[in-house]
Structures are given as C-alpha cells and as structure tokens.
Amino acid sequence: MVRIGYHASHEQFAPSNLLRWVTMAEEAGFDCAMSSDHFHPWSDRQGQSGFAWSWLGAAMQATRLPFGIISAPGWRYHPAIIAQGAATLLEMFPDRLWLALGSGEAINEAITGLPWPEKAERNARLRECVDVIRALLAGETVTHRGRITCIEAKLYTRPARPPKLIGAAVSEATAEWLGSWADGMITVHAEPDQLRKVMDAFRRGGGEGKPIMIQMAVSWGATEDEALREAHQQWAPNIIGGDVNWELRRPADFDLATRFVRPEDVRSSYLVSASAQQHVDWLSEFAALGADELQVHALGRNQDAFIEAYGTSVLPHVARDIAHAGKPR
C-alpha cells in the first residue's frame, strides 16, 4: 500500500498558509503529510521558520491525515521533550504520527552554543537519544548519563501505542546502521540504482520488513521556465553537496555559498517539469522500488496550483499505474 504525502515546508511558508494547504492536499487526494522542523530557513529568500510542533496539533485537528515529522534530538530539543511532544499528539490523534530522528544540521541545532562535532559523534549522540525516547514512550522512568543527561524522567501522558521511530539516512552506511535500531527509514530521492543500494543497506542492517519512506523534491509549474525558476529561487542552497548542508550555520552562508548556482544546475538534484505525465512517471517509478510512502515536497511558491494539478492530473494516474503493477493503494 503505497501512500503519497504532501510535505509542509516551514522554511518557506507561514504556518497559517501551510494549514490551508494541508487541508487542500487532503481534499485533492493526498494520503498523508509530513512536516519539516527548522529553526532557520535554508535561505533568506525563503524567509519563514514556524514552530512545527505547534503547527502539527492544528494540522492534525483540521484533517484526518497521518503525519510524519523529522527532528534532531540532543541539541535544540532534549529527547524527553521530543518524547513528550509525540506522546501528547498521539494521545489526541491515535496512530496518526510517525517520528523521524536524525543527527541534525548546524543551521538549526548550533543555536544552543554546544560544540558541533563530526558526523560519527552526532550519530552516537542520536543513538543515545533514541534509547531515551523509546524508554519514555514505553512508560519507564529514565535516568541516563552519557552524551545527553536525563534524570528520573517519566511520561504520565502516553498514547495507547507509541509512534514508529524512523531513522533518516542518505548514505548506504547510515542506512545500514539504522537497520539495527529504527522502526523504519526515510531517505531522499536519487537515481533509482543508488536508491536501491540505500534501501538494500537498510534491510541488510536489520530493516527487512520495516517501512521505507522516500522524500521527493519536485518542482511543477504551468511552464518549464516557471518550474525551473521556482526550484532555483527557493532551493538552490541545497544542491552544493558534500557536508556543507550539515555544517553551515546561517541562511546567509548558504546564499553566499550558492551565489553562482545557475537555474539549469538544479536539475541535477530536483525533479523539475511542467508535464503532469512526467510527474506521474516519477512517482510510479519510485513507488515500484518498494517504498511504503512517497512524501512529495513541492519546491515552488505556487502551492495552490501544485495541489490542484496533482489532485486532477497526477495522483489519480499514479494510483492507476500502481494498480496495474499489482500494488493497489
């Protein structure tokens, strides 16, 4: 059962607008939704940064959709607070939230003034946080002293069933590591052969049978020029690769680092097309890889038009393709 989700980008849009769009997305036929969780936007051009956890309560009340959110415990958030936030939402909206946990980016987490170590150390800190969160959601009284500290913490408001704790991965190495502890994996779209390697690594590490989500960064427009312009104007700072996305600390740093990125360069990282059929083909191709959810992140500012186009010209045809492949939604 492949579900197709709408991604709510708090870096780009005011929470009030995102609330309207997520209700529109449900009406248009999206099956689920996902929320980013940022303190800063990636670029000053994006210019927003609402508090995702406040927004989730409103969005879950306004719709019937299941939601996911990706957060980085251990820096901006103590893991006990992440656990309490997830437990509270699930007590009100049972079985409608999965919680993805990652090692974070400096642009959000460095605001605490804590040292920002290398990836291996951040992963070790994340693993401790996962253990604390899982124990709290199970009703245990938790005392932990390590990279993070938690003393005699206990959740008194808990849901009947805890959320799935999903791990975030881009590389094969991280995906294989996630398989040993995560209840599922979320990754980003890539060339199908590379994506298969990441998915296989997760399963090889212990993730066999666990859900896999793929976040797809797409740009749609009434014309090719509009689709390309929107992707470039809003998301050029994210295509420079390497460790830069995890290490730079200010939106202005990303704008400076990508000042020479040209509009045509974004096609190497994003799925850009004005053709509804091309979007159908992309979603159908990634669904065929064996993903459980495809979370579609529309990069442009034209969210109303995107939702309308997907509702009328994309989602019904993806459902048809999946059904013909023997994988009904």
Description:
The chain has 329 residues and is α/β, with parallel strands linked by helices. The protein has one domain (3-324): Luciferase-like domain (TIM Barrel), CATH 3.20.20. The chain contains 12 helices and 11 strands. The chain has helices at residues 15-28, 52-62, 79-92, 106-109, 119-137, 172-178, 192-207, 224-235, 244-247, 251-257, 276-287, 303-324; strands at 3-8, 32-35, 67-71, 97-101, 142-145, 149-153, 165-168, 184-188, 212-219, 271-272, 293-298. It has an 8-stranded parallel β-barrel with strand order 1-2-3-4-7-8-9-11, surrounded by 9 helices. Helix 1 (15-28) packs parallel to helix 2 and helix 1 packs parallel to helix 12 (303-324). The longest helix is centred in the last third of the chain and has 22 residues, at 303-324. It is globular. The protein starts with a strand and ends in a 5-residue tail after the last helix. The model has no long low-confidence stretch (mean pLDDT 95).
